[in-house]
Amino acid sequence: MEKVLQIFSPERPLRLEPCPVWRTYLGGSLLARWRGMPYTNDGHFPEDWLGSTTRANNPGREAIEEGYSVIAAEHESGIQRILLKELLETAPQKYLSSAHVQAFGAQTGVLVKLLDSAIRLPIQAHPSKEKAQMLFGSRYGKTESWYVLDTREDVSCPYVLLGFKKGITREQWMEAYRQQDIERMRGMLHKMEVKKGEMYLVEPGVPHAIGEGCLLVETQEPSDLVFRTEKQNAAGQKLNDEICSMGVGVEAMMDCFLYGGASEAENREKYQIQPELLKKESAGCVWRLLGPDHTDCFEVQRLWAQAPFTWQPDSFRIVIVTEGNGKLACSAGAVSVRAGETWFLPAGIRQLNWVPEETMSAVICCPPRPQA
To answer: In the chain, is it the N or the C terminus that has fewer CB atoms within a 10 Å radius of its CB?
Structure first.
């Protein structure tokens, strides 16, 4: 363990390598360009999972373990790599904090994705914690949020489908599902145009679909539990009720949706979250994009700095550098960072200084807070 702690110190930032995950839908070219990687056509790896100790659920690919994040560190013997999941198990209190481990075990308790959609994703919803425990024996449901990192220039109106329109009932939704009337299902949901820099909350049970043209930071509970309402996936494969309902049956699946709906104005007011300023100095600012007023599952912040700026972490963090170059400096040393990189900040870092070359910004994803 001592060698692991020496190479992957819990007192300094650790670089997360890209972790592409296979999905049925197409995307990924904008994500690769944003990361500064060589241009690639859209394909079936449109997601990059960050800080993940969660295995991806891909029917038909059960033999392939994917979704687990990899930490990379420079060492005298060359670049060393280790699964984040395995690293945390070596010294969980040092990397995650004693309070976090006591509450959530040796796992992050949160999952962050970079998600790039070239097409509309299928309409879906996710179970709440209570439903996930009852139906799947899982302590995590799937509350999630979307921060719009960028949009595609060739898509005139990037959008998401989010939430039922006013008056939609379980009977109407079941009928549309049974008939596989996709246009009717789409018409029952609000189509919301999205723009770079916006934040949206997606509560469990809320039907939704990410539209084409969106590059998102998706922060969520660490599960891959998905109720599907379209019996054909984006790859053209036919799905049956068993797959759509994840084995719990259509009636139980339908019970997990939140019916009734809202007007367009009410829907946007509820699910488009406005930033809250946490800290402002001449050197930089920090905003809370999503916090405890909205969910107890995770928190998302945005930092901007134009000069050395101290932002003290009070737990581990997953960081996405969205603009600029610079350094992350702490008592154990400094690492160079640039836009398109992702980092894991262990709980052992006591003070962190953001040192931009000119300006630097980042999205910071935080785990759930242990209950007092």
So the answer is: C
